[in-house]
Amino acid sequence: MIGRQKEASELIELYESGQAEFVAIYGRRRVGKTYLVDNVFKDKFAFRHAGLSPLEADETEGAGPLRKQLQAFFSTLVRYGLRNADCPESWIDAFSLLEDLLEEKDDGTRQLVFLDELPWMDTARSGFMTAFEFFWNNWGCHRDNLMLIVCGSASSWMQNRLVNNHGGLYGRLTHEIRLSPFTLGECEELFKSKHIALSRYDIAQSYMIFGGIPYYLAAFRKGLSLAQNIDALLFECASPLRNEFSRLFSSIFDNPERCEAIVRVLNGRSAGYTVKEISERTGIGNGGALSALISSLVASDFVIKYVPFGISRREVHYKLVDPFCLFYLRFVENQDSLNEDFWQQNLVSSSVNAWRGIAFENVCLLHVDQIKRALGISGVITTQSAWSKRADDTEGMQIDLLIERRDNVVNMCEIKFYSDDFAVDGVYYRTLLRRQALLEKHLTRKNVIHNTLITTFGLVYNEYSGIFTSVITLDDLFL
Fold first, then answer.
1. Segments forming the whole domain that contains residue 347
2. Helix/strand/coil for 346
3. Any idea what the CATH number is for the domain that residue 418 is in?
């Protein structure tokens, strides 16, 4: 298993603890939550059930969502050995049957119960949470040989109902795991394990499109180039990820249309927007409902929350960082007609080249830990943001990434995605000097600026290259 060694070790330690354990695992759809549990425990499950997706449990298809969830749960109980019982009419009855099954199978060894996609089971007015709390508080937590693992792609539900629960499950979780997308280095490991030959230059471009989502990367086919794989996954007729964008929202969020609307607004500006600006552009009232929707997008790793440099701490901005959403909205959705070779035909187009520069900035933002390690400042507390200044009396400017450090250094990062070593000429040298001078006006006298280049292969050393204090390459981002 790639990239999940820490999480796997934690699960094994909990399995061997000799006491009741209640573990919540959450993260973005397709990030590998179920894969992690299945590969760590394989055939050790005393009971394993996955909730029906909202689409499968739609009440327009005969029985209502609650009835369908209960029927599916009962079917799983029967498969694991439950006998002489009828389909439950409520979740209280359903969990009572689960208790009966586990008690009958109990031989003193560890009993592992895995409830996958738990948020899907909590349909409207179903009484699910009341029954689930009763199951754990009155039965499960008292059985030293029981380990309960619950998973969910609806990260906001998992956080609000379990991790930060203030009701019957307050403080009941014994462990939580937030599963994040792969890093560039982990993506490289995955491709190597599948014998897919891609350079780091191309792996970086795959990250610009698919992010570090294992499910997407595992769909790559051996023997195809990066461009051919992109066309096969997104642009060919009936390509497997062609409709993934809409599925992302319908399967995770209670209000998928509104969440999608927020994502579309955030896609319009790389610096992101405040809550007030999002409200104005979506028409969603600036209140608790909007804040909850944005929080759910942040919890699911689609959006980040940050304060741009030089702005009041109260002016929090939200920025879309999910590579798949950004790419889909820019290239896939806007295709008037299906061109099955779109990416192969546009590899050197001006629009694609411009996109690479912006997308690489996003990749770097998602790999700040690797950048800090390359700079030798992993232990230093930092804040990261971009900075743009509109032209007024002086020229306008934009800095791709600022790393403000507690040790009084500010790394002013220039991010360049090039197919060769990057060369600084006289014009660019003077531009950097002007940017540095403008930035200095917004810093205190105790701060010093380090010009930092983040690029693909390196820097051509000439009479101007000394402007950069540090150079970070793709190899550093793959650490």
1. 184-237+338-361
2. coil
3. 3.40.1350.10
Which residue type, as a one-letter code, is found at position 202?
D
pLDDT surpassing 60 at residue 84? yes
3-state secondary structure of 315: coil
Same domain, 217 and 277: no
Supply the pLDDT for residue 24.
Answer: 95
Burial 5-22 (b: 16+ CB within 10 A, else e): eebbeebeebbeeeebbb
Q: What is the pLDDT of residues 264-273, one digit of tens each?
A: 999 999 889 9
C-beta separation of 231 from 342 below 8 A? yes
pLDDT at 148: 98
Residue 464 one-letter amino acid: Y
pLDDT at res. 154: 82
Quick one: 225 and 208 in the same domain?
Answer: yes
Single residue among 307, 328, 349 that ends a domain in this structure: 328
Q: Do 191 and 172 reside in the same domain of the chain?
A: no
Q: Please state, in angstroms and as integers, the Cα–Cα distance from residue 243 to each residue in 58, 181, 233, 343, following that order.
A: 19, 20, 10, 17
Task: Tell me the pLDDT band of 59, cut-offs 50, 70 and 90.
Answer: very low
- Written as one string, the DSSP assignment of 192-233 is HHTT----HHHHHHHHHHHTT-HHHHTT--TT--HHHHHIII
Q: Domain check: are 255 and 140 in the same one?
A: no
pLDDT of residue 164: 82
Does residue 333 fall inside a structural domain? no
Question: Could you tell me where the beta strands, DSSP code E, fall in 380-465?
Answer: 382-389, 397-405, 409-416, 422-423, 448-455, 459-460
Position 22 in a domain: yes
Per-residue confidence band for 343, with pLDDT thresholds at 50, 70 and 90? very high
Q: Average model confidence (pLDDT) for the chain?
A: 92
Radius of gyration in angstroms for the set of CA atoms belonging to the chain, rounded to a whole number? 25
Tally of domains within the chain:
4
Q: pTM score, two decimals?
A: 0.91
Residue 439 burial by CB count (10 A; 0-12/13-18/19+): exposed, middle or buried?
A: buried
Can you point out the beta strands (E) in 307-357?
Answer: 317-320
DSSP 86: P
